[in-house]
Specification:
metal-binding; DNA helicase RecQ; 4 domains; six-stranded parallel β-sheet; Arc Repressor Mutant, subunit A; metal ion binding; Rossmann fold; hydrolase activity; DNA repair
Length: 609
């Protein structure tokens, strides 16, 4: 295979005529035997970075991957391209595993996916010794490399032992790949995997096709349904919730409203999880309601939206979870409903956990960065990139703040009233009680503590309950108030509140939109999102192309996108190729797929001409 160059492999096997971003540099560096660390956002084409060098170099390439589902997806996709790929994991029976080992030793397999636990077995390492002696090892690719980081949400202790690869096979090139890594995680990957001399390839973390939007919680289920109705009536997407119970309840509620929704969380038995995951991958228009247990390694390119009904734990989590939308490069939405309750419950979860204090401090800082992002009035794309240490040129026209800039107001006076009320009542009460005092409402709780006597009682009558909720939420998000977990979620002042109380600095806050004003811009925005699909949804030819893809996928028992991505179908729809040659020029149509499916799709075009 080595007589071919990277460009030829890209065109003939994968069906693309040009590399994206740093892909070509990575491929050539690895093909020549160099080590690499690749940081590339989800949907940036990480897998090509090791798949092409694996085909260019002699011998067997080993890909270490943490999830069975991910391996199966990748192997199915490679087999469709005519590449001899396989996986070795606990889902294989003993005799299947034995047969596969024979094929490996006879040189039949080019790319082998393996779980880190399997890789560490002495029997497997001996197999690699044998492979190296007879046919050679092309490279080691360590996917989802952030799993080595103990600070990450996907920590896998087995990843720490992968340095054995370099010690045992020092001449085989290694590449570690990940879609999210802030500076500390990056340093940890390099240190833990002995990649000090590896060349680093860092792509932009921007996902320009994702539209970020954060709305204030106000009956989140109805808000979610309105979002689905206006923007994603027939699309596949993921809805994230914090708890298993909420996943089950939300999925059941969506089903009762006529949506094709399935639950997914670690509390379901393995067979149900597997069944739901397969349905999500292989059928169209399914909504997966899930905890974060679902997602790592979900390689479905046409997820059109990711919705959060609860706050994620950090900016990394938010970036990684929203990044599961729009991997095909077409328009996608990241929508989140958020409120003060989220702030309180996330902080409670953090503080009541049994992690060491140092770890908790890091987690708190990460949560604070996310809260600041939620309340920010500037461009969301800029905010995400700034967090990852990257600059963004300017307004994106792809987020709520750029499309409908939020109003801000000088909340200094209100902030001082709120902080003063927290102080005067002993820094141990929650928002609801504090608001009752500020607006002068006599409740049994107010009377019980004699709080109608405090100096802040009734001083904030000019603001509504909703306005006060907003003031408290933003004071908590910006770090002027903190949640005291020992006092059942009561609020207390931080050091940063002092200058505000002393009148030494101003407080500006975002003006929460009124629900009515929100609705109009929603319709506007949904029409913009729909334009990106250029009216394809209503085109009978689009429906026919999708139906043909579904039929071919069902025959072979693979997900539809393994046949062709939506972006490929969209190009077929717009260009209407007349011959196999013309069809072969479309992105994502390599030689194997052209030979296998070309005539089927040309016939669909003919029937509609």
């Amino acid at each position: 295979m080595s007589h071919q160059n990277a460009q030829e492999v890209l065109e003939s096997i994968f069906g693309y005529n040009q590399f994206r971003g740093p892909q070509q540099d990575v491929v050539e560096h690895l093909a020549q035997g160099g080590d690499a660390l690749v940081l590339m956002p989800t949907g940036g084409g990480k897998s090509l970075c090791y798949q092409i060098p694996a085909l260019l170099r002699p011998g067997l390439a080993i890909v270490v991957s943490p999830l069975i589902a991910l391996m199966q997806n990748q192997v199915e996709a490679l087999q469709q391209l005519g590449v001899e790929a396989a996986f070795l994991n606990s889902s294989l029976q003993a005799d299947e595993a034995y047969q596969l080992q024979q094929r490996i030793l006879s040189g039949d397999i080019k790319i082998l996916y393996v779980a880190p636990e399997r890789l560490m077995l002495s029997s497997f390492l001996s197999l690699l010794d044998e492979v190296q002696a007879h046919i050679g090892l092309a490279l080691f690719a360590i996917d989802e490399a952030h799993c080595v980081s103990q600070w990450g949400h996907d920590f896998r202790p087995e990843y720490r032992q992968l340095t054995i690869l370099h010690e045992r096979f020092p001449d085989v090139p290694r590449v570690a790949l990940t879609a999210t890594a802030d500076a500390p995680t990056r340093a940890e990957i390099i240190e833990r995997l002995n990649l000090e001399h590896a060349r680093q390839f860092i792509s932009s973390f921007d996902r320009p096709n994702i539209r970020y939007r954060i709305v204030l919680k106000n009956n989140a289920r109805q808000q979610l349904e309105q979002f689905l109705e206006t923007e994603h009536p027939n699309d596949a997407g993921i809805v994230y919730c914090l708890s298993r119970r909420k996943v089950d309840e939300t999925a059941a509620w969506l089903q009762s409203r006529g949506w094709n929704a399935l639950p997914y969380h670690a509390g379901l038995d393995a067979a149900t999880r597997e069944k739901h995951q397969r349905q999500f991958l292989r059928e169209e228009g399914i909504i997966m309601v899930a905890t974060i247990a679902f997602g790592m390694g979900i390689d479905k390119p046409n997820v059109r939206f990711v919705a959060h009904l609860d706050l994620p734990k950090s900016m990394e989590s938010y970036y990684q979870e929203t990044g599961r939308a729009g991997r095909d490069g077409l328009q996608a939405n990241a929508w989140m409903a958020y409120g003060l309750g989220d702030v309180v419950s996330m902080r409670q979860m953090l503080d009541s956990g049994d992690a060491p204090e140092e770890r908790k401090r890091v987690e708190r800082q990460k949560l604070d960065a996310l809260l600041g992002f939620c309340e920010a009035t500037g461009c969301r794309h800029q905010g995400i990139l700034r967090y990852f240490g990257e600059a963004h040129p300017g307004d994106c026209a792809q987020c709520d703040n750029c499309l409908t800039p939020p109003d801000t107001w000088n909340a200094t006076e209100a902030a001082r009233m709120a902080l003063s009320c927290v102080y005067r009542t002993g820094q141990r009460f929650g928002t609801g009680h504090l608001i009752d005092i500020l607006i002068g409402k006599v409740t049994p709780q107010v009377e019980r503590f004699n709080h109608q006597q405090v100096s802040t009682f009734g001083i904030g009558k000019q603001y509504s309950v909703a306005q006060w909720s907003s003031v408290f939420r933003q004071l908590a998000a910006s770090g002027l108030l903190e949640v005291d977990i020992a006092a059942y979620g009561g609020l207390r002042l931080t050091e940063a509140a002092r200058p505000v109380l002393r009148g030494e600095c101003e407080v500006w806050q975002r003006q929460d939109p009124t629900p009515a004003g929100n609705r109009m811009s929603k319709a506007e925005r949904s029409s913009r999102a729909k334009e990106a699909f250029a009216g394809a949804q209503d085109d009978p030819l689009w429906q026919a192309l999708r139906a043909k893809r579904m039929e071919l996928a069902k025959e072979q028992g693979v997900p539809p996108y393994v046949i062709f991505h939506d972006s490929t179908l969209l190009e077929i729809l717009n260009r209407k190729p007349q011959s196999l040659t013309e069809l072969g020029q479309i992105g994502g149509v390599g030689q194997a797929k052209l030979a296998r499916y070309g005539d089927d799709f040309l016939k669909v075009l003919e029937d509609h001409a």
